[in-house]
Design a protein that fits this description.
The chain contains ten helices and six strands, in the order E-H-H-H-E-E-H-H-H-E-H-H-H-E-E-H. With about 290 residues, it is of the alpha+beta class. The chain folds into two domains: about 110 residues, no CATH class; about 140 residues, no CATH class. The chain has a four-stranded antiparallel sheet. Strands 2-3 form a two-stranded antiparallel sheet.
Length: about 290
């Protein structure tokens, strides 16, 4: 009898689902050089208001990045890079131009620049990563979401729960975070949680008893930070599949049963802290 491979939440994948593995250290170094060269040439554009890259810029990066993006049909690294170099102070303006720091970065060791970008992102992320989980509505309402900086730091600290060089499944990382009391709480208050919903603001609210599962809000936020930024910068190697059908933990939430996925990051299966990741994290803070 042929058994389907198990997904990260213990449910079988659809037949024919292939697992990809990205070893990211060399990839990140090569992509950093390509992104800085494109910025130096004036090829990248971002919104002056939101600082997000234009659709044309995302498309250009998807084609120009060495080894491409993680998916052919989803922007992850190709959206992250313009945001990262802005947060790191390497480029600015609607037509991204290298700053003096960015021009200096062209001559620096890539590992130093990647560490700078990671640390600056944690402190000064350009967007709230949870905004990329578009299936969860109500995020733009007033006083709904918690401060992104605090939960971003918590998500980043979760990498310290990964033994160097050892693959850890996503749900095992979730379990370790909860056991350690690491709570990147997405909603500002209980009232804010009621305003977050799927499909319908009344029936699909996360405010109902049993509707707020850690994996759906906090977990998806962690996936967004780690897959889109930590993996792009080479801190973690990743194993992943197509996000459609990869997880079923959201199926019993009202209005979500028809969705193929809750986020573009649902396909992340396992991650492994790299030597570059250890360098970027630095020593663990003293208790």
């Amino acid at each position: 009898m042929t058994h389907l491979p198990k997904s990260s939440n213990g449910k079988p994948h659809a037949a024919g689902t292939a697992t990809s593995e990205a070893l990211t250290e060399t990839r990140a170094t090569e992509q950093l050089a390509a992104v800085l060269a494109l910025a130096e040439g004036g090829a990248l554009r971002c919104s002056a208001k939101t600082r997000r890259p234009s659709a044309a810029t995302v498309k250009l990066l998807a084609e120009a990045l060495p080894n491409g993006d993680f998916y052919d049909h989803e922007a992850i690294a190709s959206l992250a890079w313009p945001l990262l170099i802005q947060a790191g102070g390497l480029a600015d303006g609607s037509r991204l131009q290298l700053t003096p720091r960015g021009r200096t970065a062209l001559r620096k060791e890539p590992a130093e620049v990647l560490r700078l970008l990671w640390r600056r992102w944690i402190k000064n992320g350009v967007i709230d990563e949870f905004s990329r989980v578009e299936a969860v509505k109500g995020q733009r309402s007033t006083n709904v979401l918690s401060a992104a900086g605090r939960r971003r730091a918590t998500a980043a600290d979760s990498l310290r729960l990964l033994p160097a060089g050892e693959w850890v499944e996503v749900d095992e990382l979730f379990a370790r975070m909860q056991k350690a009391g690491m709570e990147p709480t997405v909603h500002r208050s209980e009232r804010g949680r009621w305003k977050l919903y799927v499909e319908d603001p009344q029936y699909g609210s996360f405010g109902y008893d049993g509707a707020h599962k850690w994996e759906l809000l906090e977990g998806r936020y962690v996936l967004a930070v780690l897959f889109e930024y930590a993996a792009t910068l080479g801190l973690i190697d990743v194993r992943y599949i197509d996000p459609d059908g990869a997880r079923t933990d959201f199926r019993d939430h009202w209005g979500a049963d028809w969705l193929p996925r809750l986020s573009r990051y649902d396909g992340l299966q396992a991650l492994r802290l790299t030597a570059l990741g250890q360098y970027c994290l630095g020593p663990a803070p003293k208790p």
